[in-house]
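Worked problem 6 (solution included).
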Amino acid sequence: MKKQEVFTVSEAKLKLMRFCAYRERCHQEVEEKLRQYQLTPLEKQTVISLLIADNFLNEERFASVFVRDKFNLQHWGKSRLQRELKLRRISDYLIQKALLQIDPEDYLNTFNRLAEKKWQQLGKQPLLQKKKKINDYLLRKGYEYDLINAFLHTLS
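Solution. The predicted structure is:
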């Protein structure tokens, strides 16, 4: 088991400032990190308050960056983005606000590009098997069933 270190509030704040400066973090990640530092609950809240006041910790900015990066780099759909943000205890309001930054045209283009690419990769498999694999793949990526269903109906 990893040995827990004892820190003062100012030491913990400095370590967490570096932790948050490296990349955007949500409150949950900071709280998990704070558990390692053997601080009292009041000290933990003080550190979190200081990080928020110094703008090192900002849930809205985190949600926005998370959505933009995961959509642009890993091509996740809105369902997956929403699910992943909920796991990080981001509020529904901030999730919806972050999802609004995805351009609907880009979203459809990305969906179509992924679906077509997967269709080509599957080669000469039976049609029903190809449709099931594409359906499963796109659902895992987090795209809506209506979009997937519309695409599959064009393949007949």
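Discussion: The domain at 9-57 is CATH 1.10.10 (Arc Repressor Mutant, subunit A).
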